[in-house]
């Protein structure tokens, strides 16, 4: 849904990002985020603003703009507008203790998923915002529905979103989603599923038990990501199939 823009902060944010844009970054980012024909970020356009600068703009403006007004940023054709909107939305969620406000923010997030169409747009908010909300409100179903989606970005939101669960020592949802999409063909999901490594940081035996069941079936990229923080000897045992 699009809203009537009556808040000058929207244009101020866009102007601030334009001022911070660097031409060399604007040339580099399309290659980095795979925007060529047939690539996962096809057609995306960039101003050339570095992430730390976007975060600074988001911190300056998050209290000056409503979630509804953020629709103008989150639906923008410019990647940095969308990412800055996610940073703002996440800051707003983290700064409020009002459950009703958080619910409104999550509803807005879920209603704008079509604009979260690259891995950084997904990873920058999904576990701090949606994952946290689902954990604290026992709404596993929201993430589970995304895990069943045919859209790769939804699947990635689901598994990366469970990192808040992992942080709290809850691992079953992560394992469920990784197992469901273990053979998904795109390497962006292989990398997302490789966030299993964070489970290992909390409880290495949980990771090892899961790997022992599934590592032979894992795409190589997923396995490498999942084991990258294990001791070198154990890493080599998995890579060489000795377990």
Report the radius of gyration as a whole number of Å: 19 Å
Helicity range of the residues? 55-70%
Query: What is the CATH class name of the largest domain?
Result: Mainly Alpha
CATH architecture heading of the largest domain: Alpha Horseshoe
The CATH topology assignment of the largest domain is: Leucine-rich Repeat Variant
Average residue pLDDT: 95
Secondary structure: number of strands: 0
Classification by helices and strands: mainly alpha
Outline type? globular
In short:
The chain is mainly alpha-helical. The protein contains 17 helices and no strands.
Outline the secondary-structure elements:
Blueprint: H1 8-20, H2 23-32, H3 51-61, H4 71-74, H5 79-95, H6 99-111, H7 119-123, H8 126-136, H9 140-147, H10 152-161, H11 163-167, H12 172-180, H13 187-193, H14 196-202, H15 204-214, H16 220-227, H17 232-239
Helix pairs in contact: 1-3, 3-5, 8-9, 8-10, 9-10, 10-12, 10-13, 13-16, 14-15, 16-17
